[in-house]
Amino acid sequence: MKLSNHITLGVFVLASMLFSCTKKSGTLTIQIKPIVNGQPLELNSKYKSLPGKWFKAEKLKFYVSDLAITVARQSFPLKEVILADLSNPASLSYTFSGFDDIEISNVTFGLGLKPSLNNPSKSNDYDLGQFEDANPLSGSQNMYWGMTSDYRFFLYEGRSDTSASQTNADSQYRSFQYHIGKDKFYRDVSTINKPYRLKQGEDNTLIVLLDLDKMFDSGTDKIDLGVENATEAIGPIEEALAEKLSNNLQKAFSIE
User: Fold this and answer.
1) Angle at 198 between CA 108 and CA 204, to 5 degrees
2) How far, in Å, CA of 231 to CA of 247, rounded?
């Protein structure tokens, strides 16, 4: 299998179904927007999360697979693989053309990579070396995990105030590192909270929020950033934390 073009044929099927030759078609831009405490997350800036911890993020990268929209109960694929990287704004925004006046009832995607893409050494028709450096699956993206022969699905690194008093002093900051991979931590995401209507002939923007506060508190599973501060999903303890993080992240996406 060769992933030479990440925009799947589904977008062209969608365009042919929704485009009217007598009217000007519109565009749809989907933006991914990580937030903390309702604010857009910026790297190396200090924030106080809703769980009450001061922190600053230094890296945030994650894979989005099989991005699709639902229209009239039918799913239309838009893009097969995205590597969202907060340090690269272009990786957080994707524009698709050929749309009529329609209502999107849902945005769906996978958080991570499908097994056929995640385990190149286990797939006879998959070659990691086939990808150019800019490709989301290229080894140069530093998301491939050589020791486990698969990819990191979600990478989040930074530093947090570990003191009980939460004085926000640099001397109290300690590192945190969450690297989540492995097929069993792949999660399907559905943002069904709000329908979105595209306006014909216009440039439409749909924003997908990633609420990182919910990564630590989904309402069911809570994670203490000061204690549960690292996982590479190796061994029972780290796998248990990766499981909680993956479950929480699955619930952390919504439409703005």
Assistant:
1) 90
2) 15
Question: What is the DSSP secondary-structure string of 105-173?
Answer: EEEEEEES--HHHH-GGG-TT--GGGS-TTSTTSGGGS-EETTTTEEEEEEEEEEEE--SS----GGGE
pLDDT tens track for 208-235 = 999 999 999 988 888 988 889 999 888 8
Cα–Cα distance for residue pair 178/241, rounded to 1 Å = 9
CA distance 76 to 86: 26
Domain assignments of the chain as residue spans, ordered by start: 9-255
Beta strand pairing call for 230-231 and 173-181:
parallel
Calpha distance 113→182 (Å, rounded) = 9
Contact 84, 141 (CB under 8 A): no
Identify the H or E element spanning 13.
helix 9-18
Separation of alpha carbons 55 and 179, rounded Å: 18
Specify whether the CB–CB gap between 178 and 154 falls below 8 A: yes
What are the tokens at 115? 């097994």
pTM of the model: 0.86
Residues 6+ apart with CB under 8 A from 61: 83, 84, 85, 86, 141, 143, 152, 154, 155
